[in-house]
Amino acid sequence: MSTGELLIFLALVVPLFAAAAIYAVGRMPDVRETLTIVACIVLGVITISMFMRVGAGDPPVWTVARPMAGLEVAFRLEPLGALFALMASVLWGVNSLFSIGYMRGKREANQTRFYMCFALAMFAVMGIAMAANLFTLFIFYEVLTFSTYPLVTHAGDVRARRAGRIYLAMLVGASLVLFLPGIIGVQIAAGTTAFTPGGLLSGRVDAATGNALLLLLVFGAAKAALMPLHGWLPGAMVAPAPVSAMLHAVAVVKAGVFVILKVSAYIFGPNLISALPAATWLLWIAAGTIVIASVVAMTKDDLKARLAWSTVGQLAYITSAAMLPAAAGLVAGGLHMLVHAFAKITLFMCAGAIYVATGASKVSEMGGLGRSMPVVFSCFLVGALCVIGLPPFAGMWSKFLLISAAFGTKEWFTAAAMIVSSLLGLLYLAPVALRALLPPVGDGSPRAFIRPGGAPGPAVAAVVATSIGCVVLFLFADAVTAYLAPITGRAR
Fold it and tell me: Please, which contacts does 141-147 make with residues 24 or more away whose CB atoms are closer than 8 Å?
């Protein structure tokens, strides 16, 4: 086994082993959580090694099996996948640290199942990130759905079970009715489903076939929550805050937009995308999703619901990037995937820390809380400004590149939708922190702590770490875009 094959093997085995070990020591919480953190660190080292090998032009490759002609279970890492894998492994570690504080602070039931399913989800994410073809990707895409279902239904009450049914119905249904037929169509058209620089289907399909396959694959990747296949995401917010953070930043929705970027770059390619009317249709749908989701977010008093609708809109930014008739859009979309992950996990972890400390879950309940929780609400403000796209936070660069790409290709409606959404973000995200940091209305007393000492230390440490990440990425945005440049066919 070569070094590259060994790295791929370990990236898959470490989270699987962690899941088994967590189950085995479930009655020993300290050991269980130590194993989780150790697994996060080990996987982080592995993904850093793979990231560096890809950057050096020596991508890890491993063909595991050939079930039949033209179909392979195979892995090959390229810049976008390497970035996704590294991002997910780092944020798994941060979210696990947060989870220790949250789950213990709330005395949540079924904590062993929680950590085990999270590890299984990371196994699926690694498979998605490293997949060399659509066939392999599909296998791990479905593993991700089923491994995260117990997390969505963690509470076990009527609302959680209903959210879980919608989650499974929409994601599995879209995969079977749309995504799988799209994969079969690619196989018939090209004789393979391998991800190919410049686009596997470029020069191989006519416009009608290309339009049909693009629509099937984009809407089939329902984890990207593009309207009208978005309803599962706000509903899944019945899950605990660590699950919400994972869904929005580490695994599920990021897997969805990653797939759309990957399909755009390696199945269709920029040249074919620019020639397909379906790409323009999807741009209009994404632009509508961006604006509508932002407007709906403004109406939500529940903080997690507001953040969920914000995510629906921000994901549509990335879908737009994949459909723009310009290769630069792909790089901008990859950067926004990374930036949004750090910003949104910060916001959800802040929401969880607030809830553990005070029991407050609604924006209207948070007046003056910033005076008793200054660190948490300052971090929330950082995450909010990053999502909005203001300096000195990384969201400024990703949104600048996205809007510039839209203007550069004369997609005026898309550019306008992005600008309007950012302005609306100022109205529904920034006031959350400002309301808390200003003196409360009424008797002048903020909501009291229900947990002695306020938010747990590990939870606060986690939000501080990711908010720092929002600033660090601002300084290294150019390095990220340079790393991603090969997905457009340009030399780095």
Answer: 141/175, 141/179, 141/221, 141/223, 141/255, 141/259, 142/172, 142/175, 144/223, 144/251, 144/252, 144/255, 145/171, 145/172, 145/175, 145/223, 147/117, 147/120, 147/121, 147/123
pLDDT tens, position by position, 293-305: 999 999 998 898 8
Q: Is 377 exposed, middle or buried (0-12, 13-18, 19+ CB in 10 A)?
A: buried
Please state which of the ranges 148-162, 383-397, 467-481 shows the lowest mean pLDDT.
148-162
CA distance 318 to 228: 16
Give bridge partners of residue 75 from the DSSP assignment: 62, 131
Is there a contact between 446 and 369 (Cβ–Cβ < 8 Å)?
Answer: yes
AA letter at 448:
A
Question: CA-to-CA distance for 403 and 396, rounded, in angstroms?
Answer: 11
* Cross-strand pairs, 63: 74
The secondary element (H helix, E strand) that includes residue 406 is: helix 395-408
CA distances from 114 to 14, 128, 236, 248, 440 (A): 17, 21, 15, 16, 36
**Quick check: helix, strand or coil at residue 438?**
coil
Q: State the Cα–Cα distance between residues 309 and 368, nearest whole angstrom.
A: 25
Question: Please, what is the angle between helix 328-358 and helix 252-262, to 10°?
Answer: 180
pLDDT tens for 420-465 read 999 998 889 888 888 888 776 665 667 777 777 778 888 899 999 9
Taking alpha carbons only, the member of 108, 123, 31, 113 closest to residue 75 is: 123
